[in-house]
Design brief:
This is Ornithine decarboxylase. GO terms for molecular function: ornithine decarboxylase activity. It comes from Hansschlegelia zhihuaiae. By secondary structure, the chain is an alpha/beta fold. The protein is about 30% helix and about 20% strand. A nine-stranded parallel β-sheet has the order 3-11-10-9-8-7-6-5-4. The chain has a seven-stranded mixed beta barrel with strand order 12-13-15-16-19-14-17. The protein starts with a strand and ends in an 11-residue tail after the last strand. It binds pyridoxal-5'-phosphate. The site of pyridoxal-5'-phosphate has 17 residues, from helix 10.
């Protein structure tokens, strides 16, 4: 990767017409270490959030020694980044051949499930491979209710009474039993964790099974942009949130269990940006060379406030009336369909024009993995950037909700 001090330098040197990702390894190191030092249990990075080899390798170097994996490709990616990291296979519904590969090929001994047929599936393979059940920990995934930006319990999780039965079944067979939940993604509300911990405690008590571990999943909120017109509190500092969750764990009497967490977004969101170019300006509409089918699908849901910064093209003439006042622009993506329009306007300096670049920050989570080849666009160029996004020069814009009598009329 070519290395630049700032994203602005990268844009002006390369003058890219296609999107270019700015990877900030020092930010990734800092965010990984912040979580590792805040959490007293074991940190298993959730590979699905961003499974690029350069990200996984950097995380391994920063001290991440466990990965939450869900597929053979993720087993391989995590193993390639670290020969001796522990792999936790936390997908509750698995193909039989994938379970075989996990146990035999990768030596995985921790798996999640939420149904008795999955216990039977795993047991068949454990017996066939002559593995001692006592060497395998099966985590029962609990259903949870919460207010995450992304709700994930619609799909997975056993109701409490069902979870009790599953734990007892697992224990009878001779497997080690664990409990896990995943409250969603970008969860800013501690109550979601509190409720899940309450359920975990109830299930543990009812089952009478001695638990080998408690895995509290992911969901920890990353810091995104800040809309100055909406003084909603920023996402809590990861250290604060983790401390509060840990004291809840202790309050529920679960603090004696070995703990695992599966953070994704909170570790990788800030380490990556994308430098896009303005291809056309029609009034308050900007047509850019990226969009929801490429790097920006996560933002399309409208639940996060992405920070953005204009990098004006010094080679073009700036209009006499061009001002730096932030005004909202509707952002149209690169593909030929009407879905590819960002759900939130981007607030950018009024003078933005064709040929300028916009650096959209904090897209490290759920962007690269969700790129598609739709319409033949597939951004895949990377540069390394030393300066954190927040420390670059120029006013910080952001993608936020429509103004209601806000700063400027669209
Ligand atoms: C996606 C996922 C994670 C990571 O979630 P973040 O919100 O990115 O922290 C962790 N655990 C499981 C089971 C997941 O599916």
């Amino acid at each position: 990767m070519q290395r630049f001090e700032t994203a602005r330098e990268a844009a002006l040197a390369l003058r890219p017409d296609r999107p270019v990702y700015g990877f900030r390894p020092s930010v990734l190191d800092a965010d990984a270490r912040a979580f590792l030092s805040a959490f007293r249990g074991r940190t298993a990075y959730a590979v699905k959030t961003n499974g690029e080899p350069f990200v996984l390798e950097r995380l391994a170097k920063a001290g991440v020694d466990a990965f939450d994996v869900a597929s053979p490709a993720e087993f391989a990616a995590a193993r390639a980044a670290s020969a001796d990291a522990a792999l936790f296979y936390m997908h509750p519904v698995k193909a039989q051949s994938d379970v075989r590969l996990a146990l035999e090929g990768y030596g995985i001994r921790s798996l999640a499930l939420d149904h008795e047929d999955e216990v039977a599936k795993i047991l068949r393979i454990v017996r066939a491979q002559d593995i001692a059940p006592g060497d395998v920990t099966l985590f029962v995934r609990l259903a949870t209710k919460g207010h995450a930006a992304y709700e994930l319990s619609k799909k997975f999780g056993a109701a409490p009474a069902h979870a009790v039965e599953l734990l007892q079944r697992i224990d009878r067979i001779g497997f080690r039993a664990g409990v896990t939940f995943h409250v969603g993604s970008q969860v800013e509300d501690l109550a979601a964790y509190e409720r899940a911990l309450g359920t975990a405690d109830w299930v543990r008590g009812r089952s009478g099974v001695e638990l080998a571990a408690l895995d509290i999943g992911g969901g920890f909120p990353a810091r995104y942009g800040q809309d100055p017109r909406r003084p909603s509190p920023p996402a809590p500092e990861v250290g604060d949130l983790v401390r509060r969750i840990e004291s809840e764990i202790d309050a529920w009497g679960l603090g004696d269990l070995p703990l695992i967490a599966e953070p994704g977004r909170v570790i990788v969101a800030r380490c990556l940006s994308v430098i896009v170019r303005v291809l056309l300006k029609k009034g308050q509409r900007l047509y850019i060379n990226d969009g929801i089918w490429s790097s920006l699908s996560d933002s399309w849901t409208g639940k996060i406030t992405l920070p953005a910064r204009l990098i004006p093209d010094p080679a073009r003439k700036r209009g006499a009336r061009a001002s730096d006042r932030l005004t909202p622009f509707r952002v149209m993506g690169a593909t030929c369909d009407s879905v590819d329009i960002l759900s939130r306007p981007f607030w950018l300096p009024e003078g933005v024009d064709v040929g300028d670049w916009i650096e959209i920050g904090h897209i490290g989570a759920y962007s690269l993995a969700l790129r598609t080849r739709f319409n033949g666009f597939y951004p895949d160029e990377f540069v390394e950037v030393a300066t954190p996004f927040e420390a670059e020069e120029g006013a910080e814009g952001f993608a936020s909700l429509e103004p209601r009598g806000g700063v400027a009329a669209g």
